[in-house]
Amino acid sequence: xxxxxNFKEQLIQEAQEVxxxxxxxxxxxxxxxxxxxWIQDCKHKAWEETAADAKKVxxxxxxxQEFRKMEKENNTLKKLLGEKDLEIAILRDLxxxxxxxxxxx
Length: 105
Fold this sequence. Notes:
Organism: Pelotomaculum thermopropionicum (strain DSM 13744 / JCM 10971 / SI)
Number of strands: 0
Pfam family, one: HTH_Tnp_1
Protein name: Transposase and inactivated derivatives
Structural class: mainly alpha
InterPro entries: Homeodomain-like_sf (IPR009057), Transposase_8 (IPR002514)
Largest sheet: none
Strand content: under 5%
GO molecular function, one term: DNA binding
Distance between the termini: 74 Å
């Protein structure tokens, strides 16, 4: 069993180094699907063995300068959106006046 495990680990390592799983599988007479499954199992096993502290995801908190910059950009975008909405409303009114049957709402 230990020899088999070493063989699997050796093939997984070789496939990762070479970057071509298919050729490694053919060279050693193993089914490519089997080797792909071994690699996937190895990745999941590595995740399970990872410490809980390393798996934690922290929230990004911007600095005050970044926050001000984002606020400024947000306000600029809100103004642009408001202007575009107003422009669309004006154009719709114009179309209604010039061609009353054209738009149906």
